[in-house]
Structures are given as C-alpha cells and as structure tokens.
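Final report, section 2: Outcomes. Of the targets proposed, Response regulator is the one most frequently requested by collaborating groups, and we therefore present its record in full.
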Amino acid sequence: MPEKSMRVLVVDDEPQIRKLLRVSLGAHGYIVDETETGLDGISRAATFKPDLIILDLGLPDIEGKEVVRQVREWSQVPIIILTARDQEQEKVETLDAGADDYITKPFGVSELMARMRVSLRRTARSDDEPVIVCGGLQVDLAQRRVTISGNEVKLTPTEYDLLKELAQHAGKVLTHKQLLKTVWGNLHSEDTHYIRVYVGQLRRKIEDDPTQPRYIISEPGVGYRLMGK
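The predicted structure is given below as tokens.
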C-alpha cells in the first residue's frame, strides 16, 4: 500500500489498458482517474492533481509528446510513458520533452509499479537533501564526497558532476543530450563520446565489475540511469 492514497492519472485510448491499470493500481491503494485523449489528459492533470501520470504516446487527438510538453510548462509531476512504440529516437524525444521514464507494451504490472515507486520516491525526496544513497553508493552533495560501502572514492570534477546529476535523478533515464547540456554545456550537446568515456571511468571506480554494472545502467541509444541495489 502507498503511504498515502497516491493519485494516478492514466491517459490511454485503449479501454483494456485503462481497465487493467484501474483494477491493478486500485488494488494497491492508488486512486486512479483516466481519460482517452491528450487534451482531456492535460485538463485532468490540472483538476485531478495527480501524484503521477501514466501516458500513452499514440493518442487520437494529439501526440503524447505534446501532452508532456504542455504539462511541463506548469508541473513537474512524474510522467511515465507506456506505449507500443519502441523506436530509440521516439524514446529520446519524449524523455527530452520532460517524461521521467518509458515502458514499452506489452508490459508487466509489477515492472510498471516498481518504476512508479522509484518516480514517487524521487519526487518525495527533498531537493536539498545533503546525502543521496543508492544501495552501497553515497553521494554527499555538501562535501562533494562519494563513498562505496563506506570507502571514499576519488573522482575528478567532471566525473563528480556527472555522477551527481545521475544521483539527483536516481532511477530516471537521463538522455545523452540532457547529461551533455548539464555537465558540459550547450556547446557539447552532440558530443556523446564524452559521456561514454566518463561513464567508463566512473564504472571502473564505483562498480564491483564494470562489465556488469549495478549502478550506472545503459539505456541503449537513449542514455543512462543510476540504479541502487
């Protein structure tokens, strides 16, 4: 059960998907509202005030990406995309527009709910929380200090900035473009080799086995997410 009755808005034009989510989420204590169009979804997001939105991309009136863009003009509510489209470019564009995560149909309800919990925890965490903990990894923002299982890890300034960005959005997919803009600036928005090099360096320092990473997870063609186990 959620700690309190979290409100979830489902925007999907498939009645069977809406029913599945209404029943499954309702059984776990979530309050669910639903609609089949993007424009109504935007309106419901303002009136229902959900804690999280589950959104399809292929809607009958406007594209799901446009729903994300419009909602992001006034709200940072977590948005999880649930869609049959699996093209990498579509994922990148949707995440760059402001979505938090992306799950491709057919999907498992348990996987969706796990992603929901991660997004809701991230939202609930105070933005000024000084120490971010992901499994055995700790990032102390105040002291710019990183430890693994209590042992301090020495990072270069750029390595730290990259890890800090991933840690502050732990569980969320960050696209190459988002990471490049934040860590290296707008002039390097296409230099994805920078990220590959620095992710490789970080993995060698924080992973038990850099070839089987537990923390910095690749989303092929899209970007990276930090996961703590």
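The chain has a mean pLDDT of 89.
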